[in-house]
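Deliverable D5.2: sample structural annotation.
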Amino acid sequence: MIDVRKAGSRYTADHGWLKSNFSFSFADYYDPDNMGFGPLRVFNDDSVAPQTGFGSHPHREMEIVSIVLQGQLGHRDSTGRQEVVRPGEVQRMSAGTGVVHSEMNPSATEEVKFLQLWFEPAQYGLTPSYEQKAYDPAKLLNQLLPVVSTEGGEEIAKIHQDLTLYLSRLEAGQTISFEQNTQRRTYLFVMEGELLLNSDTSLATRDAARITSTTSLEINAKSNAYFMLIDLP
């Protein structure tokens, strides 16, 4: 089953300095039928104006992944980490028993556009931790590149949940196949371009698909596309 969620169906919030699109219930948006997809609890598509951002705020018992699409995202937290995340990097923060952090746009001129994902952890009571990994953008071309996984790696952030998050840039006319266990879920989100799934399901920019009970997924690019695929329990 491929459940398509069009970009325009997302909840939109505009605070001036912050523009957000929520794929699942978050903040002022509450829908009891849209609380998550497996352990994926939050998927926010954010744009933050220059020299503004989210001041210090707490989190508990959540695995938080941030992927910058444009600009730079400044991070500071109560574990002592102070970093800047840019395109080509992925950030993972385990809130565990409790962490306080801030996310700011340090640029004086450029918006930062980023995706923030929250996953429920496989284990609670973890010590808060932070990890930032860079990957080679050239490795995205016409293949699925893992950038977050339960095992981690040299260019892969390690997450405390049984999942793998892939990124890909698929050229127009190219196809990628993904095989999945019927007991697991697949979440697909298009950052740019257009995709065709299994020859009959179209996705455009910022569309998503929640996929269950599907063993084979054929992903074809109708135009040059940049997308994310998450293998979930």
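Annotation notes: The mean pLDDT is 97. The first strand starts at residue 2 and ends at 5.
The annotation will be released with the project's public dataset once the embargo ends.
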